Amino acid sequence: MALTSSNEPVLPTAWSEVLKSIQRVLADALQAADARAAALDSLPADQPVAPNNAPDFLAPLIDGALPCEQQMADTEQALASAKEELDRWLAKAAQVAQRLAEQAARKV
User: Fold this and answer.
1) So what's the pLDDT on residue 106?
2) Closest Cα partner for 61 from 46, 45, 50?
3) Angle at 24 between CA 18 and CA 25, to 5 degrees
4) Contacts of 59 (CB under 8 A, 6+ apart)
5) Which of 3, 10, 67, 104 has the most neighbouring CB atoms within 10 Å?
6) Alpha carbon distance 88, 83 (integer Å)
7) What does the H/E/C string look like for the chain?
8) Which residues contact 40 (CB under 8 A, 6 or more apart)?
9) Contact, 2 vs 102, CB < 8 A?
């Protein structure tokens, strides 16, 4: 955590709890992914793998109904949309960080 010139933390102490919570969620997600990978490894090679709870927009991909080029275009579009959303979130996070830094500087 960055410190101001008076050696006080720039971010509120609640942020450490937020970060711990994020770390717990990420650890749980990694554990779930490892469990899923182990389950997939145990399937016979000739058995198709299609999640029962896949979103409807993935159905053509799972069924193999779309040609490879269409799958690639759809995937690229989904990735571009996700990148745009992530960029917006990162910009907002940077704005919040700037405001927090400004507020911390005013209190010194």
Assistant:
1) 85
2) 50
3) 90
4) none
5) 104
6) 9
7) CCECCCCCECCCCHHHHHHHHHHHHHHHHHHHHHHHHHHHHCCCCCCCCCCCCCCHHHHHHHHCCCCHHHHHHHHHHHHHHHHHHHHHHHHHHHHHHHHHHHHHHHHC
8) 49
9) no
Nearest by Cα to 104 from 17, 9, 35 = 9
CB of 4 closer than 8 Å to CB of 10: yes
Q: How far apart are CA 108 and CA 106, in angstroms?
A: 5
Look up the pTM and report it. Answer: 0.36
What are the distances in angstroms from CA 102 to CA 4, 6, 54, 89, 96? 11, 15, 44, 20, 10
Report how far residue 72's alpha carbon sits from residue 66's, in angstroms, rounded to the nearest whole number.
10
Are the beta carbons of 11 and 100 closer than 8 angstroms? Answer: yes
Q: What is the pLDDT of residue 1?
A: 46
Enumerate residue ranges in the chain where pLDDT < 70: 1-12, 45-66, 108
